[in-house]
Amino acid sequence: MTLPPSIPPMGQREKLLEMSNVDKVFNGNVVALKDMNLTVNQGDFISLLGPSGCGKSTALRLISGLMRPTSGQIAWEGGMKTGDLGVVFQEPTLMPWATVEQNVWLPFRLRGKSIRDVQDEIMWALKMVGLEKFQKSYPRELSGGMKMRVSIARSLVTEPRLILMDEPFAALDEITRHKLNNDLLELRDKLKCTVIFVTHSVFESVFLSDRIVVMAARPGRVSSEVTVDAPYPRTEEFRTSADYAELCRKASDALHGAMNEHGARASA
Amino acid sequence: MSTTDMNAASSTAPVVDEEELRYARAQKREKIGKWLLPILVISLAIFLWDRVVVWNEIPHYILPGPGLVVKTLIQDWGMLSSALWVTVKITLAALSVAVIGGVGLAILFTQSRYFEMSFYPFAVILQVTPVVSIAPLIFIYVDSRLAGLLLCAWIVAFFPILSNTTLGLNSTDHNLRDLYKIYGATRWQRLRYLQLPTALPYFLGGLRIAGGLSLIGAVVAEYVAGTGGIGSGLAFRILEAGYRLNIPRMFAALLLIAATGVVIFTAASLLSHALLHKWHESAIKREN
Q: Does CATH number 1.10.3720.10 belong to domain B66-283?
């Protein structure tokens, strides 16, 4: 599999997907998402950061097509096919009765391809997450971090145009989370993939992304966007640098701004 | 002695402390006890049964000793074995139909909510009405005695399979269901690759219950059906022996029914282990 050329700098990227004036209302009165506008470009690593109830997960479900917007539009450049999208959930979401390679095979299996026909793709995806030696293992034989890697391999195997990650590392311990953060960036550098990453953590969003979309709650909406202009590759050194601390402060301020916006409205 | 010697010793022989030793001993004891204890207790019970009969000089037409029961079993083996065969045949046939009917209905239920809403009440009504009270009607309407027996045993056995399998089919991980949707899975693919494997442990739990119930169903139905002659099962032999006050033969037939139940349960448990031991929590042994 040939790798695409490097990711162009922000501002020179081609458009992949556009959400315009997207509203989602549940039960006729619960506004989960109000007037969301977001342009996703090829190569973007976007974090959706916000308190619970801000509609982050709703936004992901709308983009993935699991839900339709109440009003507004989500348009993919060139239309969207199955396999254009990879998804990683907060839980590894593996089938316990299937081996690692059978789990990664799933997107192809549902398209009627035999495991032998896509053996190369499966092994490539497993190699990308460093689990090529575990193809015959069952999920229960793996640690939490390894299960998450299998889940990531499954999302990569179709070479999707966009990967959605819904708080994928929230349930892991901090050491494993840092390791997977580093590996995810390395993977992104290799594959030049586009990622939308939902998180509660300011630190995680700054470390990973080049764009942080800060969201506010009740009703769920976009509050502001923070650009993280630190260069990639980002290593462990970046994690302890002054730049990182400064960026975290900026993102944290934006998040507090979003929370106060809500507070002001609630008390008004 | 030098330090290097000590290091060498510790790297070849694993260090086992007092607690680990105690734990290992307890494990070993438990392993032996698991087999030895039941055998001992059952042997003791049989011995006491024998002693009670001998010491109290209980006549064999009231309570036969275990020796006499075994002797009768061997003596009447020709008659009892053909009766056993009839009962086993009905039980297994009823269980098979219960599996096919239970799983089939469960699949239909999960494919259509409206179908489930319409027919679930019937399944519950069939289940809660005692089979003894339906059986006489069944034998009025159904001409074939064998078909009637089968029907009774089926009514008793199919419900646990139906309800367990339905529960299993509906217990799929909701994220996995979303994933299947995102990848454009068809209804059939979702059933085959996701719902059926999820339901397997539930189904096997139902099968273990249904195995015992189909035997009960077969026996109860035969009590009700009554008419003897060729092709009568163990239940009829028990009734007949009771009329003739041939208590040892009653015990011998009872022994065979109990043994059949144990064999069915064991077979279902083995099947369950064979299908689940690689991945399901219930079949996995904890290391510590």
A: yes
d(CA A266, CA A176): 38
CB B170 within 8 A of CB B107: no
Share of chain A above pLDDT 70, in %: 96
In angstroms, the CA A97 to CA B276 distance is 8
A143 Cβ under 8 Å from any chain B Cβ: no
Q: Sketch the domain layout of chain B as residue ranges.
A: 3-55, 66-283
Nearest to A64 among B173, B182, B280 (CB): B182
Question: Helix axis angle, B77-111 relative to B196-225, nearest 10°?
Answer: 140
Cα–Cα distance measured from residue B221 to residue B225, given in angstroms and rounded to the nearest whole number:
6
pLDDT digits (tens, 9 = 90+) for A33-87: 999 999 999 999 999 999 888 889 899 999 999 999 999 999 999 888 888 999 9
A232 touches chain B (CB under 8 A): no
The lowest-confidence range among A133-147, B133-147, B152-166 is B133-147
Q: Which amino acid is at B33?
A: G
pTM given for the model: 0.85
In the CATH hierarchy, which fold is given to the domain comprising A14-84+163-174+192-268? Answer: Rossmann fold (3.40.50)
CB contact under 8 A, B175 and A139: no
Six token digits for residue B105: 């209905």
Written as one letter, the residue type at B96 is S
**Sheet strands (E) in chain B:** none
Kindly report the CA angle at A111 between A106 and A115, in degrees rounded to 5? 55
ipTM, interface predicted TM-score of the complex: 0.90
Q: Which of B146, B126, B182 minimizes the C-alpha distance to A65?
A: B182
Sheet holding A71-76, edge to edge: A30-41, A15-26, A71-76
The shortest CB-CB distance from A138 to any of B173, B185, B279 is to B279
Residue-range domain boundaries for chain A: 14-84+163-174+192-268
Q: Are B87 and B233 in contact (CB under 8 A)?
A: yes
Q: Across chain B, what does the average pLDDT equal?
A: 88
pLDDT tens column, B226-266? 755 556 889 988 988 988 999 999 999 999 999 999 999 99
Three-state DSSP class for residue A19: strand
pLDDT-derived band at B225, boundaries 50, 70, 90: confident
Nearest C-alpha in A relative to B194: A95
Residue indicated by tokens 């081609």 = A14
Alpha-carbon gap, residue A248 to A239, rounded angstroms: 10
Peptide bond into A107 cis (omega under 30): no
User: Confidence class of residue B285 from pLDDT cuts 50, 70 and 90?
Assistant: low
CA distance A94 to chain B (A): 8
**Residue ranges in chain A assigned as alpha helix (H):** 56-64, 100-109, 119-128, 144-156, 174-191, 202-208, 236-239, 242-267
* Distance between CA atoms of residues B241 and A144, nearest Å: 63
> Tens of pLDDT along B162-202?
999 999 999 999 999 999 999 999 999 999 999 999 999 99
Contact (CB<8Å) A87/B178: yes
